[in-house]
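User: Predict structure, ligand 7TS.
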Amino acid sequence: MTRLAPSDVMQLRKDFPILDQEVNGHPLVYLDNAATSQKPRAVIDAITHHYERDNANIHRGVHTLAQRSTQGYEGARTKLARFLGATDSREIVFTRGTTEAINLVASAFGPTVLGAGDEILVSEMEHHSNIVPWQLLCERTGAKLVMAPMDDRGQIDMAAFRERLSARTKIVALVHVSNALGTINPIEELVELAHTAGAHTVIDGAQAAAHLAIDVAALGCDFYATSGHKMFGPTGIGALWARAELLEAMPPWQGGGEMILTVTFEGSEYNEIPHKFEAGTPNVAGAVGLGATVDYLETIGMERIAAWEHELLEHGTEVLSTIPEIRLIGTAEKKAGVLSFLVEGVHAHDVGTILDLEGIAVRTGHHCAQPVMDHFGVAATTRASLAFYNTKEELDALGAGLRKVLEVFA
Ligand code: 7TS
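Assistant: Predicted complex:
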């Protein structure tokens, strides 16, 4: 498989202005990509260009700027559809991000397929945004949230998953790549099991789309949620992909401008998909930036990105394994670039603070996945999360930083 070579990575890093700076007197080592990733010049320029040349409200104007703005927004939809393996761009609904996409499904689609006594199945490794919207839906409908446990490596227990699926299960909601553990779940297999049981499937792709080639057709799922800001795009924009027939059948979620065809005081006729789900003026500049992100990633190639990140992950895992006081949390067979760990005798927040003094940005805490922390009996971990612009030297710097942490606390 082709992968990015270290020299390619050094070249690509130049596309990211933010990476070229010192923090606390050290070159910045940015290892917090699971929280948000950095933006290439092409994305920043696309947003600037939009505001400097094209800005207007979309869809309802005949003037030239309105048309350019609409083209930018709708062009981004087409690009994202292609990027996710969707054949029909009407299947992309722009949202604020993954959280809003999942809430949209829970609020608009949920009540159409389940009621009291029905079940929603999620895994133990979900981010809170793939738990809480379902809990709210359970409160509304009388349905029950069921959890499929994971093993101590951080992999879904397939036997337990099969066992907890039943005729009562109407929705199965699963994370593609865990933000707290890095586990890559076998989505195709899980989706097939869920569909055989008669459930609909919702996949949280927040941590997947920047690191793996996504093909919703191959995954076979019904809904796929993602965030632009984790894939080198702007904050405040993301998307829900859903099968066209499901979107057609779903009632709207929010009401307002754009989502209607006609309004009278007797009632309103809703717009076609996807506009039915995009009430109000959307984040046009964000969508334009996201479109530029897709162009950028396609130029590099997701397979090459995934292969390089795998090599980085192996190197990082080796670096951490040379420090006896470190315990890695999340050792699944199939993993993306997330290194979550404990440092014996040192609180995660202290680890993060000392690393910051070395210019190294990592995240500490529960990573909005408290059930994962509960599983491992810890309150918090330190997490280094990778992107394709990271280097092996940066992981060596992390190792050196952690040795400093241990010296301080010796
Ligand atoms: N799902 C997963 C798996 C995530 O990692 C996150 C954000 C979300 C959903 C929510 O995405 P949003 O864009 O709607 O906020 N994860 C993290 C993280 O790991 N650190 O900060 C945010």
